[in-house]
From TrEMBL:
SUPFAM superfamilies: Winged helix' DNA-binding domain (SSF46785)
Protein name: Metalloregulator ArsR/SmtB family transcription factor
Pfam families named in the record: HTH_5
Organism: Methylobacterium adhaesivum
Chain ranges of the HTH arsR-type domain: 1-87
InterPro entries per UniProt: ArsR-like_HTH, HTH_ArsR_DNA-bd_dom, HTH_MetalResp_TranReg, WH-like_DNA-bd_sf, WH_DNA-bd_sf
SMART domains assigned: HTH_ARSR (SM00418)
CDD domains for this protein: HTH_ARSR
Keyword annotations from UniProtKB, A to Z: DNA-binding, Transcription, Transcription regulation
Length: 114
């Protein structure tokens, strides 16, 4: 539990969780949303992962991150972010990105059948 509180104590980490609310992102996509070094973002991602709030998956040369879906803590964090003036727009961006990716995947599946 201590790791979770430590992870959520950082505004940057809470923003990362908001970005990952509805869609997975690569480490580069996450870093591109912040004006800090990639090693700093990597450290924040490591803290979130150690707390069990996110998981990573390596695909080729890229590492993708996503929230742990069945985590009560992520559910509570998402609820709080909906009321937060900083987190709410980031969650909307995440939802919009997830929708774009769903449409792209559906279009790709449709073109494979032709």
């Amino acid at each position: 539990m201590q790791r979770v509180f430590e992870a959520l104590s950082s505004a940057v980490r809470r923003k990362i969780l908001a970005y990952l609310a509805h869609s997975e992102l690569s480490a580069g996509e996450i870093a591109g949303r912040f004006s800090m070094s990639k090693p700093s973002i990597s450290q924040h991602l490591s803290v979130l992962e150690a707390a069990g709030l996110i998981v990573r998956e390596k695909r080729g040369q890229f590492v993708f991150y996503r929230q742990v879906e069945d985590s009560l803590l992520n559910t509570l964090n998402g609820f709080v972010q909906e009321a937060c003036p900083v987190g709410r727009p980031l969650r909307r961006e995440s939802a919009a990105l997830a929708e774009v990716r769903r449409r792209e995947a559906a279009d790709a599946d449709g073109s494979d059948r032709s």
